[in-house]
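Crash report, auto-generated. Payload:
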Amino acid sequence: MITDDESIPLLLRDRKDGFAHISTPLPALNYQTGLMNVETFLGQAFSLAQQLPDAKHLINLCDNRYLFGLAFCAALIKKQTTLLPPNRAEETQRLLINDYPDTYLLHDGFASVIDDAKQININLLNLSAHTATGSSLTAVPLTAIPLIPADFLAAIAFTSGSTGKSKANKKSWRTFAISTVMNGNAMLPKTDQLIHTLATVPAQHMWGMETSVLMPFFWRVCVSDLRPLFPQDIANALNKLPSPRLLVSTPVHLRALVNSKISMPACERILCATAPLSSQLAQDTENLFAGNLLEVYGCSEIGSTAYRATATITSNDESTYWTLIDGLEFQKINTDEYQITGKHLPGAQLLQDQMHIRGNQFQLLGRNEDMVDIAGKRGSLMEMNAILLSAPGVIDGVVFLPETKTEQVQRPTALVVANESCRAGIIAQFNKHLDPVFIPRPLIFVEQLPREENGKLRRVRLLEFYRELRGGNF
Amino acid sequence: MSAQTPAQAEMAKLLVDALNLEDIAAEDIAPDESLFGDGLGLDSIDALEIALAISQQYGVQMQAEDSSTRNAFSTLASLTDFVQTHKK
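Recovered output after restart:
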């Protein structure tokens, strides 16, 4: 499907095929809703590319999924690299512009944006000029689907790093295009029909980017612009889509759907990632949607990496294995030490989680304890710790994950040695740097932390201490 | 701060229980304080948890696309009114 190594087409789709379902009336699209085909999308992307300011990078803060994809595509056409920040906090925008000076902010008017940076609101532009009738695309010759140099740096996806500074994951167009073809092979139901996708996750993070933004570039997939949250909204949004349907989600959303007792239209395929999913919830989800669920394991360096049919897991050890997505393989570097390689990746990638490997399959033995995943967003506990300690008046403190209650959303918790009057300042410090879902709570004020004489704070002792606190008056 | 009505007190307890808000007491949530943003600082995952608890306790389904639901989430008072109006 994709053969040329030097350059790869912007997309490979039939021009008249469905590309997206628009439910939100958007000024940029002249409030047009309904089905957008590939041709219309391309016309709008070219129109937007012509209106983008000159710069090397842009931070894509579009909240609407369709506008996000449109802006990503326009940036590719104009050879600008999309920066994907780990969150939309204003301080994050500032730090990123500091590191990448030739950058502007592109947004759709829904996000909060720092006002002292070069910026453009896509909803103040008119993109329908070139696509008004759908017949005369003056700006785009019908034959021209641009070729993008395979090495072009399409995006840099930033993930919260343990040092407190974001880690930059570079994504060339080769990486994005080829991994999308691989992901489609592994994740999409086998059908000749157009697949209609709804995602409950944001487009900006890798899981949402791969499944709800990139997938329609190379597969017969048509994605809804919505990001519904409540079960009834998800049911309504799915009911607007024809069959076969695909739902992209996370354990947090699936648990709410299953517990809501609302009946759902059939979904041929449900994809779930970002946090461990129990086989019970996987089975309940399959029953609710009368479809098959695939749980996907991934990391920011590679993106989607492996999958398994979690609903079929029994006490039998065999069924817990994950299978690598075809195109990725393990490479042994030492006894018990492996890395993952793929022709489309810039280099071999070491894995952060502990695993037991057998051929192209593996079992997860332990997850990296620094990273926290909440509903498709990733945060680093060490980063949260650094922010806590930098807050005014904080003498000592720790951010940690308490022991899990199955399927409950697990929030970071903080123990703080400081005067209670510092609470507002600490919350403000977190707000400045973190996505709201990672702001620790409860925030518990204590006399001191259970540190050992050498200053170390052991997790076992910390959890004991926390249990005692909760057993008391908390 | 105005006092909570009995219905608001019941809703406040539901919020604290559903969200494990261990450092906030149900009776301390002011009826007209914002639940999201600068007030209690709740977020979208909380909204999902609250919606789930409300559907289980009162049989009311929240919908974000319905503007009355969006307004309902502004304060304890508005959330209580919304549920009292819609409950079966």
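Post-recovery validation: Chain A touches chain B at residues 228-233, 236, 252-253, 256, 259-262, 374-375, 409, 411, 427, 431, 436-437, 439, 441-444, 470, 474 (CB under 8 Å).
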